[in-house]
Amino acid sequence: MGRAHEVRAASMAKTAAIKSKLYSRYGKELYIAAKAGVPDPEMNQSLKRKIAEAKANQVPADVIKRAIEKAKGSSNESYESLRYEGIGPAGATIIVDCLTDNSNRTIAAMNQCFNKAHCKLGVKGSISFTYDNLGVLSFKYDGDEDAILDACIENDIDAQDIENEDGNCTLYVSPSDLHKAQDAIDALIPDCQYDVCAIKMLPQEYVTLTDEHDIEMWNRLLSLLNEVDDVNEIFHNVENC
Q1: Where are the domains of the chain?
Q2: Percentage of the chain modeled with pLDDT above 90
Q3: Digit-coded pLDDT (tens) for 168-203
């Protein structure tokens, strides 16, 4: 599938700002999982899975603890999942997933970001059909990829693809099998460290921006979106930005 470069690029781009956004994202998702049931991972399977995913993505223990403690308290925050799809220059496309407690604030922020970058918000479903929704696990591994595939078969995991080169392995699975796959890999590779362990929207085709103005506007859009607190994740098909 040739998607490994997208995963590795994301891993290499872990700046302090991106880590902060990641921690904020998991803080909200852990809070939601804890509020949806008992705020105890031993009694709440969804929370237990989300904690495992957060740890796999190197989210600090204190971030996890604060989210759960917040859910135990009197906070009544309620978050809504919203997806926005947009179009940029030269075939560039973008998907922005948000978690918000105020949808009016969020759509206003999205309009402002896209307008300032001279990009266009699309209607629901106008872009997402050109992406694949997959669970992605990327980790260090220099063994035989057949062992990974065998583990998937033994655990009834729908493995879509596997890429294994230069000591890096990336496994693509159905989104519903992400946590099963993580358990299988943890059993096969004790103390496995993940670069990526999450559900992603991966573009079926990538584009490269060559015009300097297009690159400037696209980077401006990404920068503006990353400044919006409600933005949870961003997926796009531009290789060089």
Answers
A1: 4-72, 80-129+205-236, 131-203
A2: 68
A3: 899 999 999 999 999 999 999 988 888 888 899 999
Which pLDDT score is estimated for 174? 96
Which of the pair, 2 or 156, is modelled with greater confidence?
A: 156
Token pair recorded at residue 137: 């696990």
Put the strands of the sheet holding 168-173 in their side by side order. 159-165, 168-173, 131-140, 194-203
β-sheet bridge partners, residue 97: 83, 233
Nearest to 55 by CA among 148, 240, 173, 179: 179
Q: Does domain 4-72 have CATH number 2.60.120.10?
A: no
